[in-house]
């Protein structure tokens, strides 16, 4: 059925969206790390994301180890409550401004 409404983001930096449906998800300003690995490759660790439904917490084996909503060690505490978006599944939705120059006579 889909969302009854969506949150549209405005930002002076990149706006990241779903590659399938172009729904706004987050902005470049909210990126904590671009050097992160998801299940299918390079990913971004983000402070917050919009237009999502949270599922049940589960353990996942990733390249950087076993992860869950709760950190297993103190060095991973910064990841608690954050979001991972895989780069492969994102598209840059930043509006493109086209400037046309005209000669005035």
UniProtKB/TrEMBL annotation:
The record ties this protein, via PANTHER family, to: PROTEIN YIPPEE-LIKE CG15309-RELATED
Enumerate the spans annotated as Yippee domain.
14-105
Q: Could you identify this protein by its name?
A: Yippee domain-containing protein
